[in-house]
Amino acid sequence: MMRLALVLFLSFRIVSTLSLTCTTLAPVQTRGMTGTSSSSSPVQRKRHCSATILESAKILPIAYTSASAALLFKATKKATDVAFKPSNKPEIAVLIAMSALSLINFGPSDSARLASAKRADIRYPPATSGTPKQQRQSAKTWRSVVRIKLIGQLAGLAYMISAKSFAAVMRGVAVVFIANAAFFLCGAGRSRHDDDGTSSPMPSGASRAALLVDSLFAAAALAAASSPEGSTKQVRYVAVVVFGAMVPTLESLSVFVSGLFSGSNATKE
C-alpha cells in the first residue's frame, strides 16, 4: 500500500507539472525609450501559450516511452531467466502487451488530450452566466478528467514496474484500466474537446460502451491477480487483459508509425 501511495503521489506531481495552464501568465513588460512600460499584445500572449502547450505536451511521451522500455526490459529479463518456468508466460505476455500500449497508444493520444485540455482552458475563459459559463465548465471538466486519466495510467504502469509478483503486476494493470474507466465515468464523453480545444462531445452511447469495456478489463485483471498462479482460470483472464491492451495498440499503430516518419522528415528539414 505504501508503494502504491508513493506511485500515486509521484504521478500526481508529474501531471500537475504538465497541466499548468497559460492563463495565469503575467504580461511581459517592455520598456521603451520614453521610460513607460506596456504589456504584451494578446497575439503575443497567445503565441507564448501555444509554445508552452507544445513543449509540455512533448514531455508526456517521454514518460510513457520510459515506462514502456522498463516493462519490456522486465519481460525480457523474465523470459531469459535461468530459472524460467512455463507459468511465467502469462506475465511476460501482459508485460509486453502493456509496454506496447504505453508506447503506441498512451504516448501519442494522451499528449494530444493534454494539449487539447490546455487549449480549451485558453479558448473558453471564465464567465459568470449563460452559454460562456457552460463552455467554461465543460473545458474545466475536460481538463480534470484528462488529469485523472494520466495520473491513474502513470501510477498503474509505475506499480507494474516495481511489482515483485505476478499478482502485483496484474493489480497495476487494473489501475490502468480503472483510470480509463474513471475518465469516462467522470464526464469525458460529454466534455470532450478536439485537438484545437473546441468542444466536441462524444455520443452518449459510445461513452457508456467505453466505460463498460474498461471496467470489464479492470475486473479481468483483478480476477487474474486473485487466481492461483498458472491455473487455467488465470490464463483465461490474462488472455482477456492482453486482448484489451492489444486492440487499442493496433488501432493506434498506423498513427504512431506516420508520426515517427513525419518527425524524422521534420528533423531532416
Describe this structure in words.
With 269 residues, the chain is mainly alpha-helical. It is 77% helix and 2% strand. It contains 8 helices and 2 strands. Strands 1-2 form a two-stranded antiparallel sheet. Strand 1 and strand 2 form a beta hairpin. The radius of gyration is 21 Å and the shape is elongated.
Which class best fits the helix and strand makeup?
Answer: mainly alpha
Poorly predicted regions are 4-54
Number of strands: 2
Helix content: over 70%
Q: How is the biggest beta sheet arranged? A: 2 strands, antiparallel
Radius of gyration: 21 Å
Strand adjacency order, main sheet: 1-2
Approximately how much beta-strand content do the residues carry? Answer: under 5%
The separation of the N and C termini measures 49 Å
Q: Mean of residue pLDDT?
A: 82
Dominant shape: elongated
Keywords:
about 270 residues; two-stranded antiparallel sheet; 8 helices
Summarize this entry quickly.
This protein has 269 residues and is mostly helical. The protein is 77% helix and 2% strand.
Break the fold down into its secondary structure elements and pairings.
Blueprint: H1 2-18, E1 29-31, E2 37-39, H2 42-79, H3 89-123, H4 130-162, H5 166-185, H6 188-191, H7 204-226, H8 232-268
Antiparallel strand pairs: 1-2
Helix pairs in contact: 1-4, 2-3, 2-4, 3-4, 3-5, 3-8, 4-5, 5-7, 7-8
